Amino acid sequence: MKVKMLSRNPDHYVRETKLDLHRVPRNYDPTLHPFEVPREYIRALNATKLERVFAKPFLASLDGHRDGVNCLAKNPKSLATVLSGACDGEVKIWNLTKRKCIRTIQAHEGFVRGICTRFCGTSFFTVGDDKTVKQWKMDGPSCGEEEEPLHTILGKTVYTGIDHHWREAVFATCGQQVDIWDEQRTNPICSMTWGFDSISSVKFNPIETFLLGSCASDRNIVLYDMRQATPLKKVILDMRTNTICWNPMEAFIFTAANEDYNLYTFDMRALDTPVMVHMDHVSAVLDVDYSPTGREFVSASFDKSIRIFPVDKSRSREVYHTKRMQHVICVKWTADSKYIMSGSDEMNIRLWKANASEKLGVLTSREKAATDYNQKLKEKFQHHPHIKRISRHRHLPKSIYSQIQEQRIMKEARRRKELNRIKHSKPGSVQMVSEKKKHIVAVVK
Amino acid sequence: METVPKPGSNVPPKKDRLQAKKKKPRRYWEQETTGTAAGASPGPPHKRKRSRELRPQKPKRNDTSKKFRISKKPRELKSPGPQRTFSGAQDPFAGPAPVSVEVVRKYCRIDKSKELPHAKTKTRSRLAVAEAQEEETSVRAARSELLLAEEPGFLEGEDGEDTAKIRQADIVEAVDIASAAKHFDLNLRQFGPYRLNYSRTGRHLAFGGRRGHVAALDWVTKKLMCEINVMEAVRDIRFLHSEALLAVAQNRWLHIYDNQGIELHCVRRCDRVTRLEFLPFHFLLATASETGFLTYLDVSVGKIVAALNARAGRLSVMTQNPYNAVIHLGHSNGTVSLWSPAMKEPLVKILCHRGGVRAVAVDSTGMHMATSGLDHQLKLFDLRGTFQPLSTRTLPQGAGHLAFSQRGLLAAGMGDVVNIWAGQGKASPPSLEQPYLTHRLSGHVHGLQFCPYEDVLGVGHSGGITSMLVPGAAEPNFDGLESNPYRSRKQRQEWEVKALLEKVPAELICLDPRALAEVDVISLEQAKKERAERLGYDPDTRAPFQPKPKQKGRSSTASLVKRKRKVMDQEHRDKVRQSLEQQPQKQEKAKPTGARPSALDRFVR
């Protein structure tokens, strides 16, 4: 007879002293872990609920401006520095860690229309209603010195926007036409126009740095190549585009913030169909900015809210609003992709978390592991109806909520009409037009 | 010092290099016989190293035919041999260590045989990634088996000796002192036949006698936790999620005691309870009553979740399926019905015996169910969809109590005898031909349970409690986060909080516990249909072919029609070909198998 009994030595399973960690032997045999899926599901449900409980995105409000904030700019070399221009011509430089204004400049008479920093972070440019372009030093003047711009360019027409080249000493302004300037000269290197209308914004492509995009109030988006004297091509939409923003990771993708409450992500190579139509705002979209990862962007709207969209989704994943925030005019995603800043009509700049429930500060390794695990679980069970409902639910102010209802009814009516039209006309004569194609009027080359 | 050759870091000295090139070092499991030679020669370390290198070599890759490396990259499969580095040193164990396929299969969670509905490319690629990850995890889990500390017990007879003849006294004599202490008898003749229950960690034992005697003890240290007499008949006894709570089915009502014997609750809505089962992950106490009701009591909030009328008279046979928490009830008409609190009707009804069902047991993998009936038969059923008997055996007396162990041993109590049958492994059913062990007790068996994580079978009988030694019954390696027999009080409290946080709702009990992680094809199709109805058209259908306009006069109406017709015909031909491919299989089946065609074939349908 050969016999062996299961006999464990307790010393191998119990800690030796109180200062030791408890011994936890593991065995991954599935029969020892029954109900793996239901338990994971419950964990995912709990994680989703906790995410909503901890969703406190609002961090700080920077106040000090005496008129609505019209434009914002990031400093490419310093995460903590932010520049803002107001409607009374005042420019303020803020320190985000201290949440204080560190410098105030009376830059223009009338609005500060545009502000941008140089790629080196040592100076910045502003344009205003007083038909001037001014270059300022980022550091304040030394003691006794007066606050004066480095250079001032007097133009003939009003400039409405400015953007700096990402590598060279060249910047572009827009107004009646798109001008490209050398920093050393007082006359533009070249001016480009296509049609006669005021251009509201111009943006350099961060990867293909010779490319520019602009949008004008005659409803078109025009693309330029700096090396050519003429524009490349343009796309005409249903309504006017307020701003565009290039994807910092994909050179040919840009997103346009439109007056018809939508945002359109375009592939530069095929402008006749947008890659994605992002619909959730209930009023004109005024500004858009990409996260440095290029996976998401944030949009500011006239409906007093900002929304965060994934690039490949047509619906937003997040909406931020407060009771006091008025029409949001400008929005920026910080370079560490953790925060969002929004400047609004009621003179405040607000600082938000990009992930509403993220814990700030240093995480211990266990905390990190737990959040990673929960994130994965949420991802795994995201399509389950109960979890989906909880994770999608957002409280909305009454104005936005009722607007959404109203627009849903309008949209449904339009769709019904279209269906009826198809039904009662000769088969094939009236086609269903997809949402993507609906808003594009023409592409001109 | 003896060192393991590392790739690239240390080149063997010149003298040894030649040998090193010829002879490949071996993994320690490849050869066991020559180990004694190396171990027996006590000498200076450098000598030992030499003797190790001079060992005779086995033929190359002798046992690797069974094993293969499971890895995602195929090129690693191609080059399993040692690889050269810049220094000329060879990596003797190049690539990942081999894992056997059977072990990986044990940890595999996805069923690849299931066909998924047609999906978009993006979804399909995402599914492929998820599947690859699942495979990777199962390989990793299989690799971690190397770290398991304990080996299961066993009992083997020498050359044809029948293990069933081996008595408990022989086993106690043969095993070590700690194991021998696990065999004990409690002589409690006064308070009648006993029911017993081990806690989930296998550390504590509770028993209750027909005449009201209830006791709980730490049976390993034999420390008594409480002992009371409830002055009422005790029908069944169960630990709740931890050893601190105890449910006792008394003559009238269900009572809950703590580990000091203090009565905490008296649940009057559960009356005349005959059997108790606790579902630990759902925190549900299932009670079967004389009145024919199956009641689920949520012990975490104290509410009755469901009270189901089985409509089969007195319920006295109940067990749970530990794999999916479905309750099996045995009835006096020979059927076994499967219940979930989410349904008012039984999920399945199986006709198992002629005459009543006396006992039911389900194994830990949820694959096999053992039943015994008044017709003196013991049957093993397959629970994976077919519910067909796998094997049957007629017993002289018929078994009144059945229990499965963690490793798939089946114990049956017949009168005052306990028989135990064993199978090949954990997932295989026990073979009913030859018993593995038998034992005669001093009284009639009234309750049976294998102790979790210990090679012990607890038997409650009319003469008291007997703790039998059954080598190879229990899972040797427990998981510390799931149920740890050596946990401290603090650890238990922490575990309790975590377990309560992830309490599975009662509605999720169904036959397939993995259903939540699978694609719900039916509701998917339904949603698609509803969307098509709502939109007025199906967005997933392909648009009809529209010929591209061509130049140089080739875009005439005639040519357009011709090109359209060409595509249409091609599609039609494909459709016909597909249907033809399916048809001949049907015809072949219909043909007679005879060699010569007969005139009567025309009448064959």
UniProtKB/TrEMBL annotation, chain A:
Keywords: Nucleus, Repeat, Ribonucleoprotein, Ribosome biogenesis, rRNA processing, Ubl conjugation pathway, WD repeat. SMART domains: WD40 (SM00320). It comes from the Eukaryota. Pathway: Protein modification; protein ubiquitination. InterPro entries: Sof1, WD40/YVTN_repeat-like_dom_sf, WD40_repeat_CS, WD40_repeat_dom_sf, WD40_rpt, WD_repeat_DCAF13/WDSOF1. It is found in: Nucleus, Nucleolus. GO terms for biological process: decidualization; epigenetic programming in the zygotic pronuclei; maturation of SSU-rRNA from tricistronic rRNA transcript (SSU-rRNA, 5.8S rRNA, LSU-rRNA); negative regulation of phosphatidylinositol 3-kinase/protein kinase B signal transduction; oocyte growth; proteasome-mediated ubiquitin-dependent protein catabolic process; protein ubiquitination; spindle assembly involved in female meiosis. Residues 354-440 form the Sof1-like protein domain. It holds the Pfam family Sof1. GO terms for molecular function: nuclear estrogen receptor binding; ubiquitin-like ligase-substrate adaptor activity. The keyword Magnesium does not apply. One of its GO terms (cellular component) is cell junction. Signal peptide: none annotated. Part of the small subunit (SSU) processome, first precursor of the small eukaryotic ribosomal subunit. During the assembly of the SSU processome in the nucleolus, many ribosome biogenesis factors, an RNA chaperone and ribosomal proteins associate with the nascent pre-rRNA and work in concert to generate RNA folding, modifications, rearrangements and cleavage as well as targeted degradation of pre-ribosomal RNA by the RNA exosome. Participates in the 18S rRNA processing in growing oocytes, being essential for oocyte nonsurrounded nucleolus (NSN) to surrounded nucleolus (SN) transition. Belongs to the WD repeat DCAF13/WDSOF1 family. This is DDB1- and CUL4-associated factor 13. It comes from Ovis aries (Sheep).
UniProtKB/TrEMBL annotation, chain B:
It comes from the Eukaryota. This is WD repeat domain 46. The lineage of its organism: Eukaryota, Metazoa, Chordata, Craniata, Vertebrata.
